[in-house]
Design goal:
Length: about 525
């Protein structure tokens, strides 16, 4: 990379805009979905508006990460922006639910290129002593935009049109594209490399079968115990085994399995997976709880997530700044402690009589625990691998976090529905077909559905009580995730980011990638506990 020719301020601005746009679209649709269904129909398939984006992003993330290592970051970042903007325009013009689902998948492919490459470019641009601050900033933007999505989606839908939740990406994307095109310059590696087509196909098949199994399982005609659902998980397992065999033999694999021999790298992936589940449980079920207990609208409820956003922003900044001062393990222990306390408070202290400001405090605690991971895990991972694997390594952080979110949605959703249905059985004179129609209870939050089902206010109140009980049940189970994360945190050992002696404070100075100080740092004690070996590396 020729950092002397790059305009650092413009590059950072372009990367921030691209990351904000891609992360925002993971959640911005949620509060607009009721309006979208009214306009386009497709009630039976609307869930795929979320799923198509997530599946496409998970599939494309590791592939784009590897391609950016092989052929350069800039071209694939710009390609991701173009795909994302085209997908956004098409989403805004969709005339039915099927079209919207297809266009969301195109958006997801673009998002899979943007998010991992952003963090890798920042790591390439800045020397060690600046990376913590920058990773904290970008981690805060990622966390903020992910949680801010429902608030923004509701506001745009209420004041303009649901189509503008997609059109708004276009001016943001154009600015990002122009900034990166004009201001970012890199020196490409001219070494001849081969694309691992077999690995890409097998990895894609593995993820598709897993994600379809998670998304379809537990829905009508796709019971968890049905042969169709089980077959998807079995196929995913078989394809995973074939993928691992292929990656051990190919010269330039999509994912270098030797990376997982490093304790810091493997621990970061495990923490990302588990934290993804915790984040999804909080962001999904707290709004439902507030709607059911305090009778807020969807738009009003989304503002309850604001305190969690502030906690995420603050702790992401702190995590980035202390990365060079404390061991990764020590910082993440504080993060896990906050998450354990926050999850415990939501599951075992919160109840329908809890006042709203106290719930806000609980959400702040969750945010403080979550935000650290957005910055520190990227720093830990990128410091633990050789330069030629930074793109694929950064992509795997996003990959595992998203997989964790998907598994969290599936598992927690199934548990919540089962607990809610068990609660309905204790309501006298409730017809079984009525209970089945209500399913997980979210339909009760719509006054139109209440009227269609001819439910009295007293019956609705009793059922909403069962809904809140089932949500509290989810939070009780969610405590296990940060507890399990402690195992991976302890495995990080004494590793920490180390600033080379004589490093100076600007991009391209001593300590920047490619300098002797940075090269020496790759083998510094604490970068990782074991140096992985690689094929073709």
């Amino acid at each position: 990379m020729d950092k002397h020719r790059s305009n650092i301020k413009l590059v950072v601005a372009g990367l921030l805009l691209g990351l904000f746009m891609a992360a925002l679209d993971q959640t911005i649709v949620s509060t607009a979905m009721t309006t979208i269904i009214k306009k386009l129909g497709g009630l039976e398939s609307f869930i795929w508006v979320y799923s198509a984006y997530m599946i496409a992003m998970v599939v494309s993330t590791p592939i784009f990460g590897k391609l950016s290592d092989m052929f350069g970051r800039k071209r694939f970042f710009l390609m991701g922006l173009m795909l994302f903007m085209v997908g956004s325009i098409l989403c805004g013009t969709a005339q039915n639910m099927d079209q919207l689902i297809i266009y969301r998948a195109l958006q997801g492919i673009g998002g899979g290129a943007l998010m991992p490459i952003v963090f890798t470019i920042i790591f390439d641009l800045f020397p060690m002593e600046k990376r913590g601050k920058m990773m904290g900033l970008f981690g805060a933007v990622f966390g903020l935009s992910s949680v801010f999505g429902p608030v923004m989606g509701g506001a745009i839908t209420d004041n303009f049109s649901w189509r503008w939740i997609f059109y708004i990406n276009v001016p943001i994307g154009i600015l990002s594209f122009l900034f990166i095109l004009a201001a970012y310059h890199e020196s490409l590696n001219k070494r001849k490399q081969n694309i691992d087509w077999l690995g890409a196909i097998l990895l894609t098949g593995t993820i598709l079968c897993l994600m379809f199994g998670l998304e379809l399982g537990g829905t009508d005609g796709w019971a968890w115990s049905s042969m169709k659902t089980i077959s998807l998980f079995v196929a995913s397992g078989v394809l995973l085994i074939l993928f691992l065999i292929a990656e051990m033999k190919v010269k330039d694999p999509i994912i270098h399995l030797g990376l997982f021999r490093g304790r810091v790298f493997t621990s970061s992936m495990g923490i990302s997976l588990l934290y993804g589940g915790v984040m999804m449980a909080s962001a999904t079920y707290i709004p439902l709880f507030i709607q059911g207990v305090f009778h807020r609208t969807a738009t009003q409820t989304s503002s309850v997530l604001t305190p969690m956003m502030l906690g995420v922003v603050l702790s992401s900044q702190i995590g980035g700044r202390v990365a060079t001062k404390l061991r990764y393990r020590d910082t993440m222990l504080f993060s896990a402690l906050f998450l354990i306390v926050g999850s415990y408070l939501l599951g075992f202290v919160m109840d329908p009589q809890t006042i709203e400001w106290l719930i806000i405090i609980f959400m702040v605690i969750i945010g403080l625990g979550m935000g650290v991971s957005f910055s520190l895990l990227n720093i830990a991972t990128l410091n633990a691998v050789p330069p030629q694997f930074k793109g694929s390594s950064s992509s795997l952080i996003t990959f595992f976090r998203t997989i964790g979110s998907a598994i969290g949605i599936a598992v927690f959703g199934s548990l919540q529905k089962h607990e809610f249905q068990q609660g309905l059985k204790n309501i006298p004179n409730l017809a079984p077909e009525m209970a089945e129609r209500i399913k997980g209870g979210q339909a009760l939050l719509d006054p139109v559905v209440q009227e269609q089902m001819h439910l009295s206010k007293e019956a609705v109140a009793v059922m909403l009580g069962k809904l809140s009980d089932s949500i509290l049940f989810i939070f009780q189970w969610s405590v296990l995730l940060p507890v399990l994360a402690l195992v991976f945190i302890l495995l990080m050992g004494r590793a920490r980011a180390q600033i080379p002696q004589g490093a100076q404070g600007g991009p391209g100075g001593p300590g920047a990638p490619g300098t002797p100080e940075a090269k020496g740092q790759q083998g510094a004690p604490g970068a990782d506990q074991a140096a992985p070996s690689f094929h073709g590396g």
